[in-house]
Design goal:
The complex is a heterodimer of chains A (310) and B (93).
Chain A (H helix, E strand, L loop, with lengths): L15 H14 L4 E8 L5 E7 L8 E6 L6 H17 L4 H9 L1 E5 L4 H9 L52 H13 L2 E9 L3 E4 L11 H19 L4 E4 H4 L7 H8 L3 E7 L14 H21 L3
Parallel strand pairs in A: 3-4, 3-5, 5-8, 6-7
Antiparallel strand pairs in A: 1-2, 2-4, 6-8
Chain B lengths: L7 E6 L3 H11 L7 E4 L8 E5 L1 H13 L3 E6 L2 H16 L1
Antiparallel strand pairs in B: 1-3, 1-4, 2-3
Classes of the chains: A alpha/beta (310), B alpha+beta (93).
């Protein structure tokens, strides 16, 4: 049977192949605003696909959104797919989305760590890292959220290749990280960098590699709190808002620290819904509610980005 | 295929910096194969850690002997994994 985005079940978890098929379906069904771009390939040579949502030509200001850099956080990849469909189907129907896409582009990377994701489906459901080989060690993989060029190798990252928070041999050693960095640098007009994680219901801004507040601390805090209020408005899910260091712990080499230091002011990391009861095994019945509330938070930030260019 | 039979996830609540230090020490013991879902940071925040079956006794004794409070978040991880797998298969069908 020919598949389309109307038959894709957004309320269940999917294999990588099924997600990638759905990206094609979305690009085909909403060809006027959605296109699929390959920005690189993973260590095990799987493509890294980004969906570009755009209504205009040229290098317009854009928002970056990624999910699944920690492969076991399945609700993030699943939410990203729901969000992709939401953006595409609401354009022209919802005034907010329409206005957003009339002013800027959105780039969405739904599976930032495809090797890890495949591994969680086939071998080890609790896998978090990439699947790159570490010379001199039997242990595999690097924590891709400790591998960015921001306080690399500092506190809150491990130098032990067997650790789940191993920072890797050098910044950007992971091709998955390097591909995003190169894409963003080449684009040159990314205004916001948003990344989805899951576990402990937090909305964080820089810094994680140090505990001093960023220059835009007050503004980021205000935006973060507004987004958290939007999230809470739907199902009452409460988020804690603050810098990475103040809300959870010092962690160096993280993506939003890099993006902020690179000049992308609106840099936020979400830790999506999870009561702690299920760990990374949030029941499929909670995917859509999670995506719905997350979208409200994202939309609040995106609207702010649209209205406050810098 | 790696299974997680008997793996538990503990939520650990520390009272002070001293207890946090103990947990950070636990983190360095590679042979226990602990997977910290929430790392030790401040006493105000809980620490969640997945513990393989073979390390459970050692970790619980360590915590109890240092008076560190904990509760069991996930009794047997594999049970939840099996349920997740069934859900996916049912959905695909």
């Amino acid at each position: 049977m020919e598949r389309s985005s109307s038959t894709f079940n957004y309320g269940t978890y999917h294999s990588l192949a099924s997600i990638y098929q759905e990206l094609d379906n979305l690009a085909s069904e909403y060809g006027n605003i959605v296109s699929k771009i390959q920005i690189g390939e993973s260590y095990e040579k799987r493509p890294l696909y980004v969906l570009k949502f755009s209504t205009g030509r040229g290098n317009r200001p854009a928002i970056w959104l990624d999910a699944g850099i920690h492969s076991r956080e399945w609700v993030t990849q699943a939410s990203a797919m729901w969000i992709a469909k939401k953006i595409a189907s609401d354009y022209g129907n919802d005034p907010s989305i329409t206005s957003l896409l009339n002013n800027l582009d959105i780039f969405l990377l739904p599976v930032a760590n495809p090797d890890g994701y495949e591994f969680t489906h086939t071998t080890n459901r609790m896998w978090r890292k990439t699947r790159s080989k570490n010379s001199g060690s039997l242990c595999i993989g690097v924590d891709p959220n400790r591998n960015w060029d921001a306080g690399f190798g500092g506190p809150g990252a491990s130098s032990n290749p067997c650790s789940d928070s191993y920072h890797g041999p050098r910044a950007n050693s992971e091709v998955e990280v390097k591909s995003v960095v190169d894409f963003i640098k080449n684009h040159g007009n990314i205004q916001a960098f948003l990344t989805l994680h899951s576990y402990s219901q937090l909305l964080m801004y820089p810094y994680g590699y140090k505990c001093t507040p960023p220059a835009d601390n007050a503004e980021l805090n205000t935006i973060g709190k507004a987004a958290a209020n939007s999230i809470r408005s739907l199902y009452g899910t409460t988020y804690t808002v603050g810098s990475i260091c103040s809300t959870i712990y010092q962690a160096s080499g993280g993506s939003i620290d890099w993006s902020y230091d690179y000049g992308i002011k609106y840099s936020f990391a979400f830790e999506l819904r999870d009561t702690g009861r299920y760990g990374f095994l949030l029941p499929a019945a909670q995917i859509i509610p999670t995506a719905e509330e997350t979208w409200l938070g994202l939309k609040t930030i995106m609207e702010y980005v649209r209205d406050n260019p810098y | 295929l790696e299974t997680f039979v008997g793996h538990q996830v503990l939520r650990i609540k520390t009272r002070n910096e001293e207890q946090l230090k103990k947990l950070r020490f636990l983190e360095t013991l590679d042979h226990l194969e602990l997977d910290f879902w929430l790392n030790p940071s401040t006493p105000a925040l809980p620490v969640d850690v997945r513990i393989p079956a073979h390390s459970l006794q050692a970790v619980k004794i360590f915590l109890e002997s240092h008076g560190i409070e904990y509760s069991i978040l996930i009794e047997d991880l594999q049970v939840i994994l099996d349920r997740e797998k069934q859900d996916i298969v049912a959905s695909q069908q």
